[in-house]
Amino acid sequence: MNRAAAGQREAVRLLRSNLLVSLGDVQHPSVLITSAVAGEGKTATCGQLAWSLAYAGHRVVVIDLDLRHPAVHLALGGHNDFGATDVLLDKRPLAECVQYIEVDRSGGKHGLYLLATGSRVSNPTELLGSRRTGVLIEAMRQQADIVLIDTAPVLPVADTLVVGPAVSGAILVVEAHRTATDTVQQAKNALIRNQTRLFGIVLNKVQASKGGHAYGHGYAYGSETPADAALGDAVGGMLAEGDSPENARPENDGAANARGGPPTRQPKPR
To answer: What is the pLDDT of residue 5?
Structure first.
């Protein structure tokens, strides 16, 4: 295993650990993975975090509610022939739309469940803001240890804001050296105003030479500094020490891979 890959995996494990601590005693939590604007790596982060949780033995469900630009199925090796919109519009039952994505690792089988976006719709904000979306998320929560939901960026459209009140909280993914601090602050404030708890901010694509727990092709975490404080108290523990989104250097991130499987309840990975 090369050094960059090892560093990335360790960074994702740190994100997993920090998230689980933030969740505390929340039962069957549902967590939005979003960003302020497009292209910050939220979908890749969602995929990497999902696999890390599954490898650790958690029963994970991933829902793609980015109806405008669906991509989680690509990150996880699934399909998007049907999914959440088909359930919400009563075109297909939920059991037919959930995919089981399996991967072999160290002689044991690990997997997770995926509900892709499904058919394109002309009114994504209205559909996501309907009561049926909350009912769908709640149904998936009852079948999982944790539900991760990939949603649209916060600032360009209202899609994520209408889903926010139906979940336990959100993680905001920020691309280093690209996203301005005031842009992140706007997204953070928008989530909080719409009754969405912010579990933390993930600084993504950080160069290995930067301070804190930073790795090339990965993420950064560390204690909050005065420069970070402008982003709010929710940053604590998930933004690299000494880094703000504007002064960290970018690196590429990767995505997990797996194959599709049956939409039936599988034993919880050990």
So the answer is: 63
Q: How many residues does the chain have?
A: 270
CB atoms within 10 A of CB 270: 7
What ranges make up the beta strands (E) of the chain?
30-35, 60-64, 99-105, 108-115, 146-150, 169-175, 198-206, 213-214, 218-221
CA distances from 107 to 51, 103, 245, 270 (A): 16, 10, 40, 11
pLDDT in tens, 132-188: 999 999 999 999 999 999 999 999 999 999 999 999 999 999 998 889 999 999 999
Fold that domain 3-235 belongs to in CATH: Rossmann fold (3.40.50)
| DSSP code for 133 | H
Per-domain residue ranges for the chain?
3-235
Quick one: which of 269, 213, 164, 270 has its CA closest to 15?
Answer: 213
pLDDT of residue 104: 62
- For residue 152, the one-letter residue type is A
Q: How far is CA 171 from CA 34, 92, 235, in A?
A: 6, 30, 10
Question: Is residue 123 packed enough to be buried (19+ CB in 10 Å), middle (13-18) or exposed (0-12)?
Answer: exposed
Q: What are the tokens at 57?
A: 């033995």
Full DSSP string of 155-188 = TT-SHHHHHGGGSSEEEEEEETTTS-HHHHHHHH
